[in-house]
Design a protein that fits this description.
Number of domains: 2
Distance between the termini: 75 Å
Radius of gyration: 22 Å
Structural class: mainly alpha
Low-confidence stretches: none
Order of helices and strands: HHHHH
Strand content: under 5%
Shape: flat
Helix content: over 70%
Amino acid sequence: MLLFAVTAVEKLKNQKPEVWFKVGIAVLAVLVVVFIVRRILQMNKVIAGVLIFVVGAVVFFSWVYNRNEPKFLTPIVRAVAPFFPSAGAYATKQQQPPKS
C-alpha cells in the first residue's frame, strides 16, 4: 500500500501549475458559495426564496440560450429549448437572405 501512496504523491507533484490554480479557484468558489448560502439562510425566508428563484432562473435560461447545460439536464433543456430563443437560431436566421 505504501507503494501506491508514493506514486499518487508523485503524480500530484508532477501536475502543472495551471492545475493547482484551477483547484485553488474551485476551493475558493466553494467557500464563497457556503458563505453566501449561510447569509441567505439568515434573511427573511420570502426574500431568500425570491433571490434563489431569480438566480436559478437566470442560470437555467443561460443554459437554454447557449446550450451549455450539464449533461444530466440535457433532456429537460432539449424539451424546453424550442419555446425560448437560442444563440444558434439567431446565427442561422442571420445567414438566410432577407424576406421581401
